[in-house]
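User: Hi! I have a protein structure encoded as tokens and I'd like to know what sequence might fold into it. I'm fairly new to this, so please keep things simple.
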């Protein structure tokens, strides 16, 4: 049984997405309160709250103080509203990301609507302001998912979600966080902006190259870290 005090916002996000599939996105379907969701999901209330913030940023839920959280866009926005995880090593995950996400960025540059680009920029601002590991995982995932979502290809989004579920694994989360030195975080922030800028300017070649550089940078950091840790175990 999962500890209900566990901080794992990406897992909370995935599970709440599952709940939303059973609630009509009409804007008036109320979700259970945060406390009830936390108890049901076996995840901390903070993680549930953070997951709801991402879903609200995506326009999939809306919240009203004192009333609760509702599935779908706000009623006034309705007129204009537009598998289980697989166990895998980080090497396998990164190999797939390197071959899928640059193509997603290219397609996003061709199809992303202005409101999707604005959501990407808003998510980057949230990510840059986050100062803990759980929050960084959550908002980094949200940014890459918004890029996939902006392609308006549901099958690509399903593929992305399958890859992204690797973030639920505690060992994967831990090694990613160890690979984030202060200098690396600043580098990743600049790379995120370069990707979104290229998408906003409808430049698929530059968007794909920027995403490839970003994934390669992360991959190199992870390889370097695991190699050093392996040497440490030997000695």
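Assistant: Happy to help. Inverse folding works backwards from shape to sequence: for each of the 235 positions I chose a residue that suits the local structure. Here it is:
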């Amino acid at each position: 049984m999962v500890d209900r005090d566990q901080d794992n916002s990406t897992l909370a996000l995935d599970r709440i997405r599952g709940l939303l599939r059973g609630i009509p996105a009409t804007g008036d379907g109320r979700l259970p309160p945060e406390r009830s969701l936390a108890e049901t999901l076996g995840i901390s209330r903070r993680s549930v709250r953070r997951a709801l913030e991402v879903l609200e940023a995506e326009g999939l839920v809306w919240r009203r103080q004192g009333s609760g959280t509702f599935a779908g866009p706000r009623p006034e926005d309705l007129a204009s509203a537009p598998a289980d995880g697989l166990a895998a090593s980080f090497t396998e995950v990164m190999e797939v990301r390197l071959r899928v996400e640059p193509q997603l960025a290219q397609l996003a540059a061709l199809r992303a609507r202005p409101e999707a680009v604005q959501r990407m920029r808003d998510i980057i601002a949230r990510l840059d302001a986050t100062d803990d590991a759980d929050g960084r995982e959550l908002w980094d995932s949200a940014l890459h998912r918004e890029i996939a979502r902006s392609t308006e290809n549901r099958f690509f989004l399903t593929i992305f979600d399958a890859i992204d579920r690797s973030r639920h694994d505690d060992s994967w989360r831990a090694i990613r966080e160890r690979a984030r030195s202060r200098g690396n975080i600043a580098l990743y922030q600049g790379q995120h902006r370069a990707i979104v800028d290229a998408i906003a300017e409808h430049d698929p070649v530059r968007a794909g190259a920027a995403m490839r550089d970003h994934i390669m940078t992360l991959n190199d950091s992870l390889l370097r870290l695991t190699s050093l840790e392996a040497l440490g175990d030997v000695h």
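A useful reference point when you look it over: The chain has a mean pLDDT of 85. Feel free to ask if any position seems puzzling.
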